[in-house]
Amino acid sequence: MTALLGDYTLQNVMLGAALIGVISGVLGSFAVLRRESLLGDTLSHAALPGICLGFIVTGMRDMGSLLAGALFTAVVAALLMVGLTRRTRLKTDAGLAIMLSLGFALGVVLLTWIQNRGGAAQAGLDSFLFGQAAATTRADLLPMALLTVVALSGVVMLWKPLKLMSFDPEFAAVMGLPVRRIERLLTAMIALAVVVGLQMVGVVLMTAMIIAPGAAARQWAGSLLGMVLLAAGFGATAGISGGLISTLGPGLATGPVVVLVATALALVSLLIAPRRGLLPAWWRRRRRRSHTSTEQILQTVYELAREHGDWRYRVEQGAVDAYHGMITEPQLATLADRGLLISTEHMPDEGPHWRLTEKGQGHAAEQAKRRNERRRWRVRA
């Protein structure tokens, strides 16, 4: 393993993948919170014509010029999308879809034209579609690192405005923040993240790297700072792990493996994260259901009837469900079988209602009396 980690190509791949993971996780967190997942897809596809333009201008496969061209067209596409949605009746998703299709079509046309010109200089230019991590050199890492530093510095300087805009953009506008200008800067920084990942992950797969780490971190974190830091960690983990796995498995492309690892982290987080995971939520619902007895449901109906001064008061089933945070129909049906409740109707457009029977009113009143006596004994003790 030590000899493997000392390999020059693997070191370049792991460093580049870690940079991609960090910048994607940090900026992708804001895209996830703002529900702009399609933005990364649009910018990555719009970067393809910029790569071709960078090659046409310089005449060589220089990483700096290619990334500069990609950043230029990605930002232009983002600004055009904003202009379309604000000056026309198009919705945001429609504007994003238009720019995605236009950018990718233009990129494929330019790429085909360059390849048909002949010559060896353009060889490998189409690797930006799916990435070619093995071709990454130390010289390629320098512009990637510079773009990462620029993007992360922008996040640090705009932390408070970005935090406010992510959760309450209307309040940010009322506070006098230049919301539109900050939105453009955020879009430009997401474009930086996309550009950083083009060499290794490619145009087609870069979308997943923008969204997956942030989506995974969202399931675990309870604050924006925690989410951003955790997303950066998830992104770096996916990048480094994907690089190692692709090296150990002959013939495995690094970019797709990195994306698969990031996606796996997101899926695992969706399943097992304590705060929002599907399995913990299912377990909490099951525990609530098992601990919520029919007697508690009966007492809820009794207390609502007593608040209204009528023990025949018809209680809506939806209100009981909302109070206990679960579906209480099985318990209500059990109480009806015992003769303590009876199903009734209230309004044609409303859901099922229940009211106490005379037996149920007496039983609930007796239970309430015993409960109050136990409370008094505990206070005296």
UniProtKB/TrEMBL annotation:
Chief localization: membrane
Membrane topology per record: Multi-pass membrane protein
Compositionally biased tracts (Basic and acidic residues): 351-370
Keywords assigned: Cell membrane, Membrane, Transmembrane, Transmembrane helix, Transport
Matches recorded under InterPro entries: ABC_BtuC-like (IPR037294), ABC_TroCD (IPR001626)
Biased composition (Basic residues): 371-381
Residue ranges of the region described as Disordered: 351-381
Subcellular location: Cell membrane
Keyword RNA-binding: no
Pfam families the UniProt entry points to: ABC-3 (PF00950)
Transmembrane segments: 12-33, 42-60, 66-84, 96-114, 141-159, 185-212, 224-245, 257-279
Family, similarity comment: Belongs to the ABC-3 integral membrane protein family.
PANTHER family listed in its UniProt record: ABC-TRANSPORTER METAL-BINDING PROTEIN, METAL TRANSPORT SYSTEM MEMBRANE PROTEIN CT_069-RELATED
Protein name, entry field: Metal ABC transporter permease
